[in-house]
Amino acid sequence: MTYRLITGLVVMAMVGSLGTTAVGRSANTATTRVTITGGEYFFKLSQARVPRGTVYVTFVNQGSESHDLKFTGKSPMTRILAPNTNQTIKLVFKKPGRYAFLCTVGQHALMGMAGTLVVR
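Given the sequence above, the corresponding structure tokens read:
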């Protein structure tokens, strides 16, 4: 009977530690959605800080010109979007930091279409 009690406690402890590990892993691999609205010549983020992990970024072109969205050092980027259209891309941020993004069309970035997303 003592053997069964000890075995049961060991199993419960192992299951408890596995549960903690699983929770820890999910916290490090969060899935977040961010909308970035752009136009002549600006970007506006629905949230400027996100946890590291998978981020679905929806770029909405509210401008009267075509624009795109590119995160420096990340892939994929959006295609060049016509006015009043949008596209969602999936990015994975494994490390905390500041990630720059911009519009690669013409001189749009120099005219104000550039920004930063902070990953915690």
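Confidence is low (pLDDT under 50) at residues 1-27. Try to locate this feature in the token string yourself.
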